[in-house]
Write a structure and sequence with these properties.
This protein is α/β, with parallel strands linked by helices. The protein is built from 14 helices and 13 strands. The strands form two sheets. The protein has a seven-stranded mixed sheet with strand order 3-4-5-6-2-1-7. The protein has a six-stranded mixed sheet with strand order 9-10-8-11-12-13, sandwiched between helices. The longest helix is centred in the middle third of the chain and has 25 residues. The relative contact order is 0.13. The protein binds guanosine-5'-triphosphate and magnesium ion (MG). The site of guanosine-5'-triphosphate has 24 residues, from helix 9. The site of magnesium ion has 6 residues, from helix 9.
Length: 446
């Protein structure tokens, strides 16, 4: 594990909005001695109390600098586990610049690197790696579902699940080690069933967790929902209607949409990436041909497909192209003399009739694609998925070792490898280069 350096770090922690507040944080053994000469107040700084005062700048008069609120947290009772000072000032760029300038002149203080505050929390044992990653997820969450998943992980759902899996592996190791200790006495401590049961149970949990990854990725990226149909069927009109804005060009000319256009809307708390596509037909020119190819790519990438039919366009038979759940929409009912009876929704983009029915169908499909997770855990990171895939393989090695009766020392060493793999989730055994990669993905100040 990387060593914790002794320097105190400083960064603006909350980028301010215009007229808002900025919080500058100092973390490390010199935090308090750094702020003390720069802060003039009738109150003394004491742990967990906010003190109001003025900032002192060596080359500015008191009135030219700023009022501020300083809060001091004594390590280890701080978020980084070190002495931590938070300085709230007004959010002007000049002020922040002046404050950072003077703080960085202090001995033993340097500018924080990306994610370094969270990294220090992790190194000091305040949070495990899965929780640190969840902080990043929380910051990037774009909808209620992604936010909820990040909150679950911050609360420790993934860590608890990994700990309970590790505990079971440790129990098996304990049985095996007892057997090794008494190997000269021919006592069989570990009948294969006793060793197999926990291994199979953890394997099962791992499989179920891996199944949640599909939904976990959608929490990050949104469900991809293209509008597919013949030219002029009203895909762009429907795209605009669902989004509530005139985003795509609509004309009476078939072949209007060439390039795909996508826009995110929220359905049942989930991001849905709605994609308007070029109408499917034997294209007449090169640009339209490329558009049709892109529509086909969107069919491949889709999670759910909305197929748009209309009474005044050719009837497309594209069922065999579509591998996802679908909603078939019969548009332009205001023009139709008779209605076919095999569509899910009958709609008019012109009058708005049927729009609520379509929204209900969308809602139901999105809910059907959700996954409640395993013990409240939905895997959403490629890194976690990779760890659990390797764990799955290693567990099958362990199961074979027991079935083939390879002997306690071999089985124990296979189980130890499985434990090491699991430890990569919480950071116990994560290689330094992976740690660096994870934390450098954070912003400076986090
Ligand atoms: N009467 C009627 N006209 C509609 C309806 N929906 C769309 N239209 C008209 O149908 C024509 C084509 O609509 P678009 O939304 O551009 O159709 P599109 O499927 O995107 O067409 P391409 O981009 O060419 O593939 C336009 O003139 C729309 O105003 C509807 O419900 N009723
Ligand atoms: Mg269009």
């Amino acid at each position: 594990m990387l060593p914790l350096d002794q320097e105190t770090i400083v960064a603006i922690s909350t980028p301010p909005g215009i007229g808002g507040l900025a919080v500058v944080r100092l973390s490390g053994p010199h935090a308090l001695e750094t702020i003390t000469p720069l802060f003039s107040s009738s109150e003394k700084l004491k742990p967990r109390y906010a003190a109001f005062g003025k900032l002192v700048h060596p080359s500015l008069s008191e009135d030219d600098f700023d009022d501020c609120i300083v809060t001091f947290f004594k390590g280890p009772h701080s978020v980084t586990g070190e002495d931590l000072v938070e300085i709230s000032i007004h959010g002007g760029a000049y002020l922040q610049h002046k404050l950072l300038e003077v703080l960085l002149r202090a001995p033993h203080v340097r500018a924080a690197g990306a994610g370094e505050f969270t990294f220090r929390s992790f190194l000091s044992g305040r949070i495990d790696l899965s929780r640190a990653e969840a902080v990043a997820d929380l910051i990037h969450a774009k909808d209620a579902a992604a936010h909820k998943n990040a909150r679950h992980q911050i609360r420790g759902n993934l860590r608890l699940l990994v700990e309970s899996m590790s505990d079971k592996l440790v129990q098996s190791l304990t049985i095996l080690e007892a057997e090794l200790d008494f190997s000269d006495q021919e006592i069989d401590f570990s009948p294969p069933e006793a060793l197999l049961a926990p291994l199979l149970e953890i394997s099962d949990t791992t499989e179920k967790l891996l199944e949640t990854y599909f939904y976990g990725r959608r929490l990050e990226e949104g469900f991809r929902v293209p509008l597919i149909g013949a030219p002029n069927s009203g895909k762009s009109s429907l795209f605009n209607l669902l989004l509530g804005q005139d985003r795509a060009i609509v004309t009476s000319q078939a072949g209007t949409t060439r390039d795909t256009i996508e826009k995110t809307m929220v359905v049942a708390g989930h991001s849905v990436v709605l994609v308007d596509t070029a109408g499917l037909r034997e294209a007449e020119d090169e640009a339209e041909l490329s558009g049709v190819d892109r529509s086909k790519e969107e069919i491949e990438r889709a999670d759910l497909t909305i197929i748009v039919h209309a009474p005044d366009t050719i009837d497309l038979n594209i069922d065999e192209l579509i591998n996802t759940p679908q909603i078939t929409v019969y548009n332009k009912v205001d023009l139709a003399k008779t209605l076919p009876d095999n569509k899910d929704v009958y709609l008019s983009c012109t009058t708005g009739e049927g729009l609520d029915a379509l929204k209900k169908q969308l809602y139901t499909h999105v809910i059907n694609m959700t996954n409640e997770g395993v013990g409240g855990v939905v895997l959403n990171s490629e890194r976690h998925r990779d760890v659990f895939l390797r764990l799955k393989e290693q567990l099958s090695v362990c199961v074979s070792a027991v079935n083939d009766d390879l002997g306690p020392e071999y089985i124990a060493s296979d189980i130890r490898l499985a434990l090491d793999i699991l430890g990569e989730i919480t950071g116990k055994t994560t290689p330094d280069d992976i740690l660096n990669q994870i934390f450098s993905g954070f912003c400076v100040g986090k």
